[in-house]
Amino acid sequence: MDRTTNLIIVVLLAVFLVGLGTAGYMVIEDWTILDSLYMTVITLSTIGYGEVNPVSQPGRIFTLFLIILGVGFFLYVIGNVVQFLVEGRIRLILGRHKLDKQISHLNNHYIVCGYGRMGRAFCRYLIQKGLKFVVIEKNDDRIPIMNTDHVLYIAGEATIEENLLTAGIKRASNLIATLGTDADNVFLVLLAKGLNPELYVVARASQNASKKPLDTAGADVVVSPFDIGARRMAHAILRPNVIRFLEFAFADESTDIHIEEIPVAESSKLVNVTLQESGIRQSYNLIILSIIKKDGDMLFNPSASTTIGAGEKVIAVGGFNSLRRLEETLNPR
C-alpha cells in the first residue's frame, strides 16, 4: 500500500471516529454538538480532562467503546509510521548494497564526477552508446534524479580518495571531471592520475586561466564550454552548412549520418591492408576521414594506398549499421 493510500485511510478513519463519537453523545446524552465534539476529542486523544456533563450508564458504555476504537486507531497510525521508517531504511540499505555490487563488477568503465547539467547530458550520451559508467555526486538533491535516470552512483565528494576507489578508479578507463569549481577539478585530476596513471581524463574549465593548471595536473583533454559555445556561434554564421552537417552527425538522432572513432585490433583481418584493398568504401559505404597513428599523429583524408595498422584508430562517417559492421571487422570481440 503506497503512502497516499495510507494517508487517505488515516484521514477517513479520524473523521469517521470523531463523527461517530459526536453523533453518539448527541443521541445518547442529548448534549449539544460542541459538548459532544469536545468529549469525543478528549476521549479519543486519551487526554482525560474529565466529563463535561454527567454521563449515564449507556453513555459510559459508549465511552468505553469509543476509547477502544481510539486506541486501535492510534496503534494503526503508529504502526504505519514505524513501517514507513523501517521499510524506507531497509530499502535504502538494500538499494545501496545492490548499487555497490554492480559498481564492483565494472571494468574499463567511465567515472563521471558531477551530475549537474553537463554531467547529466554526458551520461545520456553514454547510455545512448551503451557504455558502462558510474557517477560520483555530492549534492543530495540530485540523488532522486539519478534514481529516476537509473544510473549507478556514489553519493559523496569526488575529491575523496575512498569514493574514487569505490567507483573502481583502478579498473576504469576514463574519468570526466565536471565539478562545480575549477579548483575542485584540478585537485580531482591530480588525485585520479595518482591512483591510476593510465586513466584518460577529460576535465571542464570554467575559466581560461584554469586550462594550464588542469593540463599540468595531468588532464588529457581540457574542455571550455564557453570557448566551444563562442566558436559554435561564429561557425554558425560563417559556415552554416558545415555546422548543419556536424549537427546531423553528432546530435540529430533522426538522421542516419554518424561519425565514429574505431580502434583497430591486432586480430582484425584488415591489419596491414591498404584502404583500397580493404573495400571499406564499396562494402560498407563509408568514408574514411582520418587515421590516427600509434604516436598520436592524425592523417587527414588518407590516400587509397594508406595501410591500416594494428593499434591505430579509424575515423569514419556513414550510416549507423555500416559503422557497426566496420567496428566488428576492425575490432572483433
Commentary on this structure:
There is one protein chain. The strands form three sheets. The chain has a six-stranded parallel sheet with strand order 3-2-1-4-5-6, with helices on both faces. It has a four-stranded antiparallel sheet with strand order 7-12-9-10. It has a two-stranded antiparallel sheet with strand order 8-11. 53% of the residues lie in helices and 15% in strands. The chain is elongated and about 110 Å long. By secondary structure, the chain is of the alpha/beta class. The protein contains 13 helices and twelve strands. It folds into three domains: 99 residues, Orthogonal Bundle (Helix Hairpins); 124 residues, Rossmann fold, CATH 3.40.50.720; 75 residues, 2-Layer Sandwich (Alpha-Beta Plaits), CATH 3.30.70.1450. Helix 9 crosses helix 10.
Q: Trace the largest sheet across and list its strands.
A: 3-2-1-4-5-6
- Per CATH, the superfamily of the largest domain is NAD(P)-binding Rossmann-like Domain
Distance between the termini: 47 Å
- The structural class is alpha/beta
Query: Strand tally, please?
Result: 12
Q: Write down the secondary-structure element order.
A: HHHEHEHEHEHEHEHHEEHHEEEEH
Mean pLDDT: 85
In DSSP terms (H or I, runs of 4 or more residues), the helix count works out at: 13
Strand content: 5-15%
Domain count:
3
Helical fraction equals 40-55%
Major sheet: size, sense and barrel closure?
Answer: 6 strands, parallel
- Counting copies of identical and different chains, the oligomeric state is single chain
